[in-house]
């Protein structure tokens, strides 16, 4: 079976700083990979390269066996690329067009992707919103009349409307309130189960990555340091940086002082 | 000794449907680390700011905010200045927003000392060096001459902490001090805050949205929802046997890092905004245990837990449950054992 | 328990939050502007006399039943000239604003969207244009293409274009960085479509506010040009030209025919400024929400 997404040797530099250096991974159909790291780890740059918002300096991205062109020209090529990978951004307050209702936003995506019949589009909009737990009221609302969690669900529905092979989530739950974050995580888990879509979940939070993904790739300053199945990684992290990240999550009996000390050792 | 005592503080803003703060009671004693947990719009930051006499303009304020026994509500400018310069100080969420990007670190630290305390340049700089060393920055003389953009977020937050310590405060208010920082930097900043707190016997109020963080670092924790305190407990009790349905919901919303993986049971809906109000318990609309005709009539008071509601393990520990209070009509009837599986 | 009402915003706050937000100034300005527009449209029917015809029997007369605001030294009826003069006085700036806004939006959108070297080059060119005072550019145009309304309006449109272009460029760059624009691109929309149909409309209100302020200044500049005798040529009535022609009357102690158009210019310019600023303030408040 061909891999859903194959990334190899991805590299991107901005001037003298190398943001991403040698990131490679393979996503099987229906798989979910967590890209875990802190600021400056290159996880967001990697996500943006996957959807074509940044051009890699070298390396290749292949979706369902077809390489993604670095630059697309023409409508057909643009739509094909859109069908390959979609993205949900971190900030639900800025990622929706403030001038369109949620329903109109989804409708525009469906029209762009060739769903001509108005009634068919309306039905599909209802279906997509239902998938993320939104209803008629939200469809008719402008983004500013919705809560952060509702907006983020709308953004997920908008990405799903394209019916992409792979969905990239760039810190998609980290700007949400704790009680709302769990709702969106459940939506993602359901989508994974029902839509059979491949997920690339970019996050700094191992707990949410564990909830959504089967495997994780840990990035440190643009380089991959550990890539293993989730359960293994959590049970026996090999790289000291992975251990540090895991221990940094607060828990009862937490000792921040020892973590701080280890972080300094790692930095040297 | 009680450093900060907020008594029945209610803050109303014109144009909002409910009070920003609604009869908030809270106290912080010297040497104590107190957590204040809440989501957006819960009023946790407003509560912390009230301890500096920083309440929103045009707000209608009732109740008292006692700092070292003296009320700040309606206090004159001199008293407010005294509190802000030498009793309480605050560390904010985003260190970059709190510092002038075109002034040197040294100016940031030394200027208040020279202006407020009338120190000479030399005295103030010597003190700034001391402060930078106290917050564990590697090369204080060099940092003194650096600009904010030359430091990482974690280092800059240390500078902000140094600035907060400049007036030798007794009470440190930390408003989401690590939210803008990386996870591993978070541990570093909290280790520093913990060490400073112990060394100096500070009273500390840690405001956070992360209930796990509060449970891991605080002695006592208050949970806020929609402007009201809904639960007060020791950190161990809160984490081990949360009583208020909202606290349970928060704990059940965070996926675990270890143990079996079950489906999360999120709290439905979204936190109550300032444009919404409810006649009864503010959480009732999202609460799985809410009883129509009871929870939606009048707001529940924050009361000590009835004996029946105190879990037996906690009751056996004489120190554990002394300060347990919750604002819920049904607190005595809720199932005692708490996992993420709790359902009505 | 003590009760305190905190009032931290003294006079200035009350001023802005009070009578400005109430908007009587804004509303008065708006009504005034609408009034002038109506007058300009209906001037030929409203004017009691033909302002191009001089009545040499009554020059430099004071107000009377026949001449409500008196006459100038050529015996032209000042009131009629004021009404009919509103046409060219408002039409000129309208031309300036329309041309400069269209060009400024195009240049700014391209520059802000494209970024990189194209943005840098356009930025330098705009800097150079900024360095030319609009009046100087207009006088140059008159020298090249002759007197009248056309050449100065075109020259001034070029001089005003950088203001709009800068604004649009900045807003475009800021807006383009927002994830909703990235989302449109990822969905497969053509960049041109996203820039023109999705991004541009969100800038509309801000550009309108800027154009409104520009209108007032353009009117002032064009009136100055006419005053210098380089703009609208007599006998076509124009406020700037009226002030110019009234110079002799002023020296003879009959300033009314100069004062009337001057007051009209000041009122319209101030009104446009108030409306523009308030539109800008309202937008800022809307965005803050």
Q: Can you offer a commentary on this structure?
A:
The complex is a heterotrimer of chains A (268), B (344) and C (289). The mean pLDDT of chain A is 91. In chain A, the strands form two sheets. Chain A has a six-stranded mixed β-sheet with strand order 6-7-8-3-9-10, sandwiched between helices. Chain A has a four-stranded antiparallel β-sheet with strand order 2-1-4-5, covered by helices on one side. Chain A has eleven helices and ten strands. Chain A is of the alpha/beta class. Chain B has 344 residues and is an alpha/beta fold. Helix content of chain B is 31%, strand content 19%. Chain B is built from eleven helices and twelve strands. Chain B has an eight-stranded mixed β-sheet, with helices on both faces. A four-stranded antiparallel β-sheet of chain B has the order 2-1-4-5, with helices on one face. In chain B, helix 3 packs across helix 4 (121-134), helix 4 packs across helix 6 and helix 6 runs parallel beside helix 7 (183-200). The longest helix of chain B is centred in the middle third of the chain and has 18 residues, at 183-200. The relative contact order of chain B is 0.14. The model of chain B is unreliable at 314-320 and 337-344 (pLDDT under 50). In chain C, helix 2 (24-46) packs across helix 3 (78-114) and helix 4 runs antiparallel to helix 6. Chain C has helices at 11-22, 24-46, 78-114, 116-131, 134-145, 150-176, 179-187, 191-227, 239-245, 247-251, 256-288, and one strand at 3-5. Chain A binds chain C through residues 51-53, 75, 78-79, 81-83, 85-87, 89-91, 94-99, 109, 112-113, 144, 155, 158-159, 162, and chain C through 178-180, 182-190, 198, 201-202, 289.
